[in-house]
C-alpha cells in the first residue's frame, strides 16, 4: 500500500531519536542550516546530522535565550539540554541567520563538545568571494583534522558523489509530485526529507534506492485538491500539512529549508572536488537569510509555474525575521501575478488551531471561485 512506502524512513528516524548514532557512524557533528557544507564534515570522517526542534514545550532553554528567539532554536536547545543530542561531538554552522549564529555560542557554553565552528559564507559569487570561501573552508578542515578527522581531496570527491546521488533522487521525487505522478503525500515527503537530514548518507541512499524500486509498482495517484505551494524556514510538524490538505488543498511544491530549497542545485562543475563544492554552495537556491526578496521572487514564481501551484501558503515560525521581512515584497509580487498568498504563523507547539482551519478553508474557497 502507498502508506507503507515511507515506513523504512520513519523507522530510521525513530532509531536515531531512541539510540543516537550507531557506533560505526560515530563521531557525529550537528548543524542547524543547510548552508553548512556537510560534504566536508563527511569527507573528514564525521556523520553530519541536522539538528531539529520539533513540537513541544520550552522550559530549560529560556534560561539561556530570550523568548523572541524562533521556535526552532528554542526547541533545539531544549532537546540538547534534555540530553537528546549527547551523541554529537559538536556543531558546525554555516553563517546564515543571526539566531543560528548566536545559538551555536550558547551550545558551546552550556552543552559542550569537542568541535564548535561557525563558517563565514560569502554573499556574492565573485572571484574574491570564492577565494575567501576557499580560505574559510581551509580553516574548518584544519579544525576537523585536529579533532581526529582525515580530510583528503579523494574523500571529498567521494562525499560529493554520495550527496549528489541523494539529491538527484530526492529531486526526482519532487518532479513526480509536480507532474501529479507520485503516490507520495506531502506528509510522506516531509518524512523522507527528515530522514535524509537525520540518517547517515549511506543509509539514506540505500533507502532511496529501495523506494525507487517500490515506486515502480502501479500505486494510485491522488490528484484531488487545489494545487498550492508552501514556503517558510522549517516545517517540523505534519499536522499543519494535514490541515492544509484536509481544507481542500494539495501541496505540490515547497520552498522550505527542510524541503526542496537545499536540493538546488544538486551538483556543480569544477576542476577539483573543492571547486565543485564551492561552486555548488555559491549557486544555492536563495534563502531569505542570504538573499534579497527581489532575487527570490523569480525563483519562486518559476517553481510555482513548474508545479502548477495556484497559490502560496507561507508557514512562518514566530520571530523568524528573514522570512517575515521577505513576506511583504513576496506577497505583493505574487498577487500582482494573480497568485493569492496566505500567511500562517506557528509557535513551538506547532498547533495550528481553529482559526488556521477557518482561514485555510476561506483561502481554498477563494481559489476555487
Secondary-structure map with pairings?
Blueprint: H1 7-19, E1 28-31, H2 38-43, E2 47-50, H3 71-81, E3 88-94, H4 98-110, E4 115-119, H5 127-146, H6 153-178, H7 186-198, H8 201-214, E5 226-232, H9 239-246, E6 249-255, H10 273-282, H11 293-307, E7 312-317, H12 321-336, E8 341-346, H13 353-368
Parallel strand pairs: 1-2, 1-3, 3-4, 5-6, 5-7, 7-8
Helix pairs in contact: 1-7, 3-4, 6-7, 6-8, 6-10, 11-12
Key terms:
13 helices; 4-stranded parallel β-sheet; globular; 369 residues; alpha/beta
What does it look like?
The chain is α/β, with parallel strands linked by helices and 369 residues long. It contains 13 helices and eight strands. The chain has helices at 7-19, 38-43, 71-81, 98-110, 127-146, 153-178, 186-198, 201-214, 239-246, 273-282, 293-307, 321-336, 353-368, and strands spanning 28-31, 47-50, 88-94, 115-119, 226-232, 249-255, 312-317, 341-346. A four-stranded parallel sheet has the order 2-1-3-4, sandwiched between helices. The relative contact order is 0.13. The model has no long low-confidence stretch (mean pLDDT 93).
